[in-house]
Amino acid sequence: MPGRLPRLTRRAEFLRAAGKGRKAGRPGVLLQALPETGVPLRVGFTATKRLGGAVVRNRAKRRLREAVRLLLAEAPPPGWDLVLVARDATTTRPFGTLMGDLRGALRQAGVPVPERPPA
To answer: Which of 18, 41, 54, 91 could disulfide-pair with 76, CB 3.0 to 4.6 Å?
Structure first.
């Protein structure tokens, strides 16, 4: 089982990715991707209060974390800061469809994605 990916933790890191990064939206996720040279992949997750209460927001972030783990943890592409923003459909979309949303958003933003997720 692949390990945990490094995380974005500071508000300034999230704001930098939002301001200078490439954006790609799908029904299940909004991706903000900022290319960084010489650093490992770092990932941050966020869900606004507009989405719902704490239970709903935490569930959305858990689903996004698992999708990223399955898709990128085996061979993370170096040199990116990624921020995944949960959307209304994040908690209700079938997980396979959510994975497809994430894969498409990563490709649109120019982040190298493995063709097939590990089985």
So the answer is: 41
- 47-98 residue pLDDT tens: 999 999 999 999 999 999 999 999 988 888 888 999 999 999 999 999 999 9
| Residue 90 belongs to some domain of the structure | yes
Contact partners, residue 74, CB within 8 Å, separation at least 6: 2, 114, 117, 118
Residue 61 included in any domain:
yes
pTM: 0.89
- Report how far residue 69's alpha carbon sits from residue 65's, in angstroms, rounded to the nearest whole number: 6
What is d(CA 104, CA 50) in angstroms, rounded to the nearest whole number?
24
